[in-house]
Amino acid sequence: MTEETIAMTQKTVDRLGVVRQVVDRQLRQKEAARQLDLSVRQIKRLTGC
Fold it and tell me: What pTM does this model have?
């Protein structure tokens, strides 16, 4: 099995971290929306929650 590398900008890495915190229930959707300058609905769509 070969290992793949995915290039991401720092902004994308930070965004992924916030989304993971929501999925892990360490951060509320409302707070994530504020941090990422998105709506709560957009956070729900990103997290599948």
Answer: 0.81
Token pair for 46: 């990103």
DSSP 7: -
Residue 25's identity, in one-letter code, is R
Q: How does pLDDT run across 6-37, given as a tens digit for each residue?
A: 999 999 999 999 999 999 999 999 999 999 99
CA dihedral for 26, 12, 36, 23, sign (positive or negative): negative
Q: Where are the alpha helices (DSSP H) in 1-49?
A: 10-23, 29-36, 40-47
Rg (CA), the chain: 12
